[in-house]
Amino acid sequence: MAPIAIKSVLISESVDPRCKSILEENGIRVTEKQNMKKDELIAEIKNYDGLVVRSATKVTADVIGAADNLKIIGRAGTGVDNVDVDAATKKGIIVMNTPSGNTISAAELTCALLISLSRNVPQAVISMKQGNWDRKKFMGSELFGKVLGIVGLGRIGKEVASRMQSFGMRTIGYDPITPPQVSASWGVEQMPLEELWPQCDYITVHTPLMPSTVGLLNDESFAKCKKGVKVVNCARGGIIDEAALLRALESGQCGGAGLDVFVEEPPKDRALVEHPNVISCPHLGASTKEAQARCGEDIALQMVDMVNGRKLIGAVNAQILVSTFTEESHQLIRLGEAVGALLQACTTSNKPLSSVQITTLGDSMKTSTSYLSSSVLVGLLKHDGCCPNLINVLSLSKEAGIKCLIFKKNLTCESTLQAIGAVQGGVPVLLELCGSVFRQPVSLAGSLLFFKAPANPQLLSSVAGKNLM
Ligand SMILES: NC(=O)c1ccc[n+]([C@@H]2O[C@H](COP(=O)([O-])OP(=O)(O)OC[C@H]3O[C@@H](n4cnc5c(N)ncnc54)[C@H](O)[C@@H]3O)[C@@H](O)[C@H]2O)c1
User: Fold this and answer.
1) Among protein residues, the one whose CA lies closest to atom 15 of ligand 1
2) Domain D-isomer specific 2-hydroxyacid dehydrogenase NAD-binding spans what residues (predicted)?
3) Tally of domains within the chain
């Protein structure tokens, strides 16, 4: 990836101090504020290339709209729920998070909730504080020998499994991406959800919140569970349908719930929080000193790695950039942009072309097709008022009505305009333009002027003057 220059970063809320010091050690100017209000953020954001947030700052479309120079939004934490990723992508801004910084903390809280559910620890604590000594009421059950269903076997799901196995629990699970043999290597047998529900004494969810996971546990799935099943949601509010959970708690189908997250935070509807069999926390999964330190440090290191063109970690909307960290890719991106700009200049109208066919030749180009074709579109769309880059160009070209077709075989192009380019000696060059072959490849740099005329040595001197011959 061609290095992205980040000279100034705004930290809009409390982030571990290592974040600021790492950025500053790497020559980035940092302004740190506490709990910035939205209006203040909108007024100031145009002065920065980078923004670092945790979860209190809501990076909405109007904030992004005012962020004229912003190149990256970094969230020191897992997930980017407080960032309007679509608006950022359209503006060509990278959105990055620190996916693994709080894995252990979230896993440990999940385990704490599972253990508390088995022994009614929070309820017993409240009762003691009220002056009671009620031993019968808080009779619990052992975790040993019980079945824990883990839905979502990513980073946190895996850590929860190994910890609860040490309590003697049998761990079963489901994940559409993690291969069964991989989870089996850490002791989790995978099976379809239909088979999983009826076997579990406890269920914990560790998936992202997305259309396919909203209401994963609902009336229908609760009905398939063992009576009295206990559930934990330390992932995102809404993965367990809140209304269905309340119904299951009231009917006894669900014997208890540990909730760290809610659809609305803080929850205005208090029915779940106040239910006697619910233990809940105000979204504390990542709230440990260690997790905050790791996330603050990780976001700064990830930004610095990106700025120095070393690697890209944690970006949620810039997958295309991951394979652009070699000098060869920089050259191909320059070639693509130059060819795109040339084709745009060749059109007689100011409007971009409506369809672009890109053909790459040679096996070495197989891995570069996606960023090469996007860079051609960047060149094509770069005109007054339009600032395309590799992040936003696909959505901009869709909006502009440009169809992009990619071929990886011999040219069969019958387009109106055709340009053939290559990289020679590290320099992007033009080999052919609209049927005219350049025996001497033309370096695609600086300002170029093209004339179409019959080959005639006198013509050049009459156009360029004798001194240039
Ligand atoms: N409570 C907190 O403060 C806190 C802290 C950290 C993370 N989290 C949340 O925990 C969740 C898990 O985080 P992670 O770091 O383990 O993420 P991860 O990306 O490592 O793992 C998520 C897993 O869910 C799986 N998945 C996706 N759709 C699924 C489906 N329909 N059914 C089953 N599995 C599915 C994915 O394949 C992936 O393996 C996320 O929602 C994250 O936002 C919460």
Assistant:
1) 155
2) 112-285
3) 3
